[in-house]
Amino acid sequence: MGATQRPADRAGTDWPARLHVVTGKGGTGKTSVAAALALGLAAGGRRTLLVEVEGRQGIAQLFGTQPLPYAERHLVDARDGGEVYALAVDAEEALLEYLDMFYKLGAAGRALRKLGAIDFATTIAPGLRDVLLTGKVKEATTRTADGRRVYDAVVLDAPPTGRIGRFLNVTAETARLAKVGPIKTQSEGVAALLRSPMTAVHVVTLLEEMPVQETIDAIGELTSLGFGVGKVIINAARPPLPTGQLVTEAELEHGLRAAGLPVEQRLVAGLHDEARDQVIRRELEDSLRADLVELGIPLVELPLLPGGMDRAGLDVLAAALLRGD
Fold first, then answer.
1. What range defines the domain where residue 220 resides?
2. Does residue 5 belong to any structural domain of this protein?
């Protein structure tokens, strides 16, 4: 992958970071949002890297491709000549790479893997696992070729909000593993990048009580640990109701007659109940949105896609992210 001429500026000043960490409660669509962000930031001839670290192969499933290897691969083309690459970081593969890089133990590392020692090490030392995963992300973010960054931006589909603080806080996690040496040096380098202006952590939520509460809790934890929170991204937001007032049964009857439809009391009552439920639901959403506004962090709302998630839907979300809707 050679260093070709690409635009020097990144896509839009609203997304100034180079490493974008995307987290959110499970079920909020954080993988789709991460993919859409990578597409949006690649538009206009830029190159982005979309990374996952949880072993779910969520990116491959989203784009309908073969499972991603532990290697950077071209995933899709973005608008106006951009490119999105993808990488699934595996802790065992990262440890083998680490042993080869720092200790020249390539063959010995592979032998240890056959004996199960690599899996054993990353299982009993979860802090080491996170250092390896985040270390690979740091390397990709800071890598250069011919005097310029290989990737204009890196987007990390990170663990969910319940684990994001522990995952990113690699220095504290490895303090009890190593006092000196390459592991300590690497973890400190990763921690410096994650707490620098080069990194922004974005939290994806739905306008539902549990995701919003987890978002508030996660932002509190991230802030206390010194990580920069970029945006709160409200996914699957529905358009506002035409009016805040509940439509009456008489208005429903009038509408049915105007449309040439039969007016039955059961139908009218059912429609009225549905309309009432919608008004109550939207009032709750407005209250939850107000709770998020109080955080003082920029909000971006992404539209609900009735047809489900596909490439066209990802492009819609990518455009909405860059507009900051």
1. 19-238+293-323
2. no
CATH number of 42's domain: 3.40.50.300
Q: Per-residue pLDDT for the chain (325 aa), expressed as one digit of tens each?
A: 544 556 654 444 689 999 999 999 999 999 999 999 999 999 999 999 999 998 899 999 999 999 998 899 999 999 999 999 999 998 767 666 665 554 444 454 455 445 454 454 455 455 677 877 888 899 999 999 999 999 999 999 999 999 999 999 977 666 556 555 666 777 788 889 999 999 999 999 999 999 999 999 999 999 999 999 999 999 999 876 666 577 787 888 888 888 888 888 888 888 877 777 778 788 899 999 999 999 999 999 999 998 889 999 999 999 999 987 6
pTM of the entire predicted model: 0.84
- CA 155/CA 52 separation, integer angstroms: 9
What's phi and psi for 83, nearest 5 deg?
-135, 140
Q: What is the greatest pairwise CA distance in the chain?
A: 81
**Amino acid occupying residue 185:** T
Total domain count, the chain: 1
